[in-house]
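TA notes. Do not distribute before section.
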Amino acid sequence: MKKSAGFTLIEVLVALAIVAVSLAAGMRAASSVSDNAQRLADVMAAQWCADNQLVALRLSRQFPGVGDNTFVCEQLGHEYKGSMITRPTPNPNFRRVEAVIADDSGHALITVSTVLGRY
């Protein structure tokens, strides 16, 4: 009896299963890298927004009052919602100011704090 050359159906199916699992893992890794790149861009733009707000407050040369304010900042074509939280410190000549930037769903992307003194 002559032995035929080629692959059996089982061998082909096993090879296809291996390729499918490999491609699925590669797609998941690529998706993860893409999500991380988007998160990094959002956090960097939020950092710029927070820094801009704190620098504007410092340049105004006015002692900030205690309380909360909201603002909207546009960076990289996207609007970020933020809040400035001003709290007293044990020394009445200083105030602690936090700029909190949130994403569209309201989760905080970044919080930047500073202390401002009376000018």
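Switch to the second chain here.
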Amino acid sequence: MTTPQTPASKFLLILTYAKPLEEVDAFLPAHKEFLSKGYEAGKILFSGRRTPRIGGVILVRGGSAEEVRAFEDGDPFVRNGVATYEIIEFTPSRAADNLDELMMS
């Protein structure tokens, strides 16, 4: 008999720029590299800019809140004081049929 899996926690990271875009843009290449490493490690599920361009949103898979804070601290935007994060932890309870596997990971 197969035991149903419990959905893994996800973290929604809401990034808000704390400095003018000119200052943010100076760190954009390093931020993009940071995101690429997160995707390669299987940590980030999706990311993108907020509209209007006042920050961004990142969906991170599982782990602990402490791991996510450590991940956030590695962002060049945070290290250079041009952005802050709000971290929202949630456990998915429902997903579209084609996202069921994502919900469990």
